[in-house]
Amino acid sequence: MTDTKTIKAADAAFKVIEEWGVDHVYGYPGGSFDDGMNALYNRRDTMKFIQVRHEEAGALSAAAEAKLTGKLGVTIGSAGPGAVHLLNGLYDAKHDHAPVLAIVAQVPQGRMNMDFFQAIDEGPIFDDVAVFNRTATTAKGLPALIDTAIRQAYKYNGVSVVIIPKDLGWTDIPDTYISNAKNHVAPIWPQPDPVAIDKAVELIEAAEAPMVYFGIGAKHSGPELKAVSEKFKMPLVSSVLAKGIVEDTYPAYIGSTGRPAGKAGVELGFNTDLILWVGNDVPFSIFLFNPKAKVIQIDIDNEKLGKRHAIDVPILADAKTALAALAAKGTELQPTPFFKAALADHKDWRKWQDSFKDDKSTPVRPEPVFDAINKAAKDDAVFGVDVGNININFMRLIDLKTTQKWTTSGQYASMGYGLPAAVAAQVAYPDRQVFSLSGDGGFAMMSQELLTAVKYNLPIINIVFSNQTLGYIEAEQRDDTHQPLSGVDLIDTDWATVADGMGVKGFTIKTYDDIKPVFEAALAEKGPVLIDVKLTTEMPLTTQHMFIDPAFQDADKVAEFKKQYQAEDLKPFSTYLKAAKEGKLD
């Protein structure tokens, strides 16, 4: 008879995590997590601990990595305050459907549920954010609990939380558990109903103004989206998160719709009579389209069918498969006036934006800076994008390639996301160029993570757009609620000096003439850099309250709007549609 080899329960837990292919975790140590830190030390040759400077950043990094890679992100937090700090990043993962595992420490079992140092009832605080939320009750069961949590995170594309009382992790248990990692296989999605495909094609062929509206659920379907667009002459409009599935320079990709979008994408939504709605769950969608338009919806989740808009044809299937089935049916259509007008409208919008690339205003406009970013970004660059006006400028001004990646806090929209996301991107893709793009408001929230970049020599190119205001909120107060500006002003900060103090090489752009030399110098550096752009306080053109068409809007308001945004050269969609119907766009 041989003795069974034993292992500390915390070591067994991280052994399971490693068997699932995880080779690093994000977090910040605490006394209640000493057992976990000891286990990570014991696995230091095969699993790296990424020490962030705030638990929220660790959770945001784990969420961002899961969104970028599709693989499990892992973060840890100590008992009490460390646990609470995790919540914001975990909610980002929940809202954007990212598989994340949070290992949360707890005081020893004998000290739980009483007035003890850092003791709180942790379980309930994670109930809403997690698809799986359990507190370990035995040391021996811990590896199986971790294994189950990971399977649940993958199954539901959400957050799994495992709370571990400190004493359990130090307990010796038999080293016999074998994880389920080897049994994990990709799901098989349902095939589209041929009858539904035929009905969809019939509706598309009968429509006068059909368009495609696709979301992140179509992320592997770029060629199929193009095939449907080209066969049926349907312009492509995406959600914000779906930017990059089709390259921005593709003529029939009109961009996004909604507030961060360009003018043309917004106009199409109100002029369409049929929408092919693909892998999209945008909550604002009900406000973005003609409510009388017919809708064909493709989704792998039957709960999503009809969730955001009344639909005429539901198709329960993977986007790639369903789009390919549509493209294989019917006959190729000729371009409609709607299609021609959409392309012309978008072309003029891009021309208008490009007219500001050489604008020498001081403080600088965003267009010359984003032009420099487009030129500097490599074909495999990765962008971590914060929340606010940076979303608007990124959506409109970055010409994303399908070989590039980006991530932002989508449906949760948490400020402070950009830098932790860039940390995750550089950790996940050490050989790729990584940018973090933030406004001065969002960057201030997580700026301490520059120290993380320094500690691990992550050569992130951090760009902070400083305009001394919470621009996105300022625009809401001014345009939506028409109230006095309140609480949105920010003090001017010398972010380059802040960066230098943290060990990051800092640069400042104050004028147009600074842009080229600063980018050249920043790109020549080997470690992390920060570029502080002193940006104009002028707001981006609003598509939410757009006065552009004198045919049905007040002429004085149109004139005022165009003057405010220097948009005199922009024509409304109706102008292009009229020209197309008269054969003037052929």
Automatic annotation (TrEMBL):
Molecular function via GO: magnesium ion binding; pyruvate oxidase activity; thiamine pyrophosphate binding
Keyword Transferase in annotation: no
All copies of domain Thiamine pyrophosphate enzyme TPP-binding, residue ranges: 386-533
Domain of life: Bacteria
Residue ranges of domain Thiamine pyrophosphate enzyme central in the record: 197-326
InterPro entries: DHS-like_NAD/FAD-binding_dom, POXB-like, Pyruvate_oxidase, THDP-binding, Thiamin_PyroP_enz_cen_dom, Thiamin_PyroP_enz_TPP-bd_dom, TPP-bd_CS, TPP_enzyme_TPP-bd
PROSITE patterns: TPP_ENZYMES (PS00187)
Catalytic activity, EC: 1.2.3.3
Keyword Plastid carried by entry: no
Domain Thiamine pyrophosphate enzyme N-terminal TPP-binding, first and last residues per copy: 8-121
Keywords recorded for this protein, A-Z: Pyruvate, Thiamine pyrophosphate
Group of enzyme by EC: oxidoreductase
Similarity-based family: Belongs to the TPP enzyme family.
Name of this chain's protein: Pyruvate oxidase
Protein's organism: Loigolactobacillus bifermentans DSM 20003
